[in-house]
Write a structure and sequence with these properties.
The complex is a heterotrimer of chains A (96), B (126) and C (141).
Chain A lengths: L11 E6 L4 E9 L5 E10 L7 E10 L4 E7 L1 H5 L17
Antiparallel strand pairs in A: 1-2, 1-5, 2-3, 3-4
Chain B lengths: L1 H7 L5 E6 L4 E9 L5 E8 L11 E6 L4 E5 L7 H33 L15
Antiparallel strand pairs in B: 1-2, 1-5, 2-3, 3-4
Chain C lengths: L2 H7 L4 E6 L4 E9 L5 E9 L6 E9 L4 E6 L1 H14 L55
Antiparallel strand pairs in C: 1-2, 1-5, 2-3, 3-4
The chains are: A mainly beta (96), B alpha+beta (126), C alpha+beta (141).
Protein name (chain B): U6 snRNA-associated Sm-like protein LSm2
Subcellular location (chain B): Nucleus
GO molecular function (chain B): RNA binding
Chain lengths: 96, 126, 141
């Protein structure tokens, strides 16, 4: 029933997790509980004092119950971003 | 299942989804599943100043469990139909609860109180 | 590639596990089951703030407590290659469901799963939206 994630296969995606982290990587697979595999994953760390920091992570399996949203990254738009100039408070965690 | 069907009727319409981390996303509803996971197209974050985290994103999948509210387009919602369907749903639920209760009752009468299994049921005289 | 296939491929490799409570566990993966429960050996546990460490010979982690896992790059490559090799076999299914042939012992991998529930007949009144939920997404390539 999670057929909606199918269109993300092989694409660059951004996952926002329940604890407010932002992970970006290549979407390699998922299952019915929305566990997701990312390869070449990076975490983007936002801060209100300095630009976005990128932390390389490698291959990640993120558990579905820790996932808030999965976004398809438009690579053209993404490469046009000036991450060093983006300042923002870290996202709040999901509070159920 | 009622709200799943309801949201299916909104596919193609613009909605705003507010998440439980206070972020609000405006986009076109593309699909929805039984858990009310939703996929939105042409998404914009309504407060992009505060949330510049999704500037390079157009299509997004939202886990149903992190949705706080969905703002609906008022003129796309057939309120009467929704009320009707809710009543029918409630009536159906009530009816099936009744059937289950009476089944459980007859089972109890047949099976005695011994939860422990075994064939010591009292055979009803017939 | 299914998440559980990746993890099964990571058996006997080093992995990093972060739990929902923020603790991380580094160790060698001994086993993983269909609920993502894990057995690790030669483990170093790190507290949430990264200031305390514990070594332990072996530990068991309940799948539902996991936030995410990190596995070595080569494991992903290996599992991918395995999948490609298994493609084109007669019982391959389009949905990409993995079988576990050749990995003896583990028993049937995909047990109950979630049934389709009561099905889509539920709301006869809301037929609208042509695309329908479920499988109707046009594939963008």
């Amino acid at each position: 029933m999670t057929s909606t994630l199918e269109t993300f296969f092989g694409k660059k995606v951004q996952i926002i997790t329940n604890d407010g982290r932002t992970l970006i990587g290549m979407f390699q697979g998922y299952d019915q509980t929305i566990n997701i595999i990312l390869t070449d994953a990076n975490e983007r760390v936002y801060s209100s004092f300095q630009g976005v920091q990128t932390v390389p992570l490698g291959v990640y399996m993120v558990r579905g119950d820790n996932i808030a949203v999965v976004c398809e990254v438009n690579e053209e738009l993404d490469s046009g971003l000036d991450l060093d100039s983006i300042k923002a408070e870290p996202l709040r965690p999901i509070v159920h | 299942m009622l709200f799943y069907s309801f949201f299916k009727s909104l596919i193609g319409k613009e909605i705003v989804v507010e998440l439980k981390n206070d972020m609000s996303l405006l986009g076109t509803l593309d699909s929805v599943d039984q858990y009310l996971n939703m996929k939105l197209l042409n998404v914009e974050v309504t407060d992009a100043e505060k949330f510049p985290h999704m500037l390079a994103v157009r299509n997004i999948f939202i886990r149903g469990s992190v949705i706080r509210y969905v703002h609906l387009p008022a003129d796309e919602v057939d309120v009467e139909l929704l009320q009707d369907a809710s009543r029918r749903d409630a009536a159906q639920a009530k009816a099936s609860a009744k059937v289950q209760a009476s089944q459980a009752k007859s089972q109890q009468q047949k099976g005695g109180h011994g939860g422990g299994g075994g064939e010591r049921a009292v055979v009803p005289a017939s | 590639m299914l998440p559980l296939s990746l993890l099964r491929g990571a058996i006997s490799h080093p992995v990093l596990v972060e739990l929902k409570n923020g603790e991380t566990y580094n160790g060698q993966l001994i086993n993983v089951d269909n609920w993502m429960n894990l057995n690790l050996k030669e483990v170093v546990c790190t507290s949430k703030d990264g200031d305390k460490f514990w070594r332990m010979g072996e530990c068991y982690i309940r799948g539902s407590a996991i936030k995410y896992m990190r596995v070595p790059d080569e494991v992903a490559e290996m599992v991918k290659a395995d999948m490609a090799r298994n493609k084109g076999r007669p019982d391959k299914r389009p949905g990409g469901f993995q079988n576990n042939r050749g990995r003896g012992g583990a028993g049937p991998f995909r047990g109950g799963g979630r049934g389709g529930g009561p099905g889509r007949g539920g709301g006869k009144s809301f037929r609208g939206g042509g695309a329908g939920g479920g499988g109707g997404n046009p594939r963008e390539e």
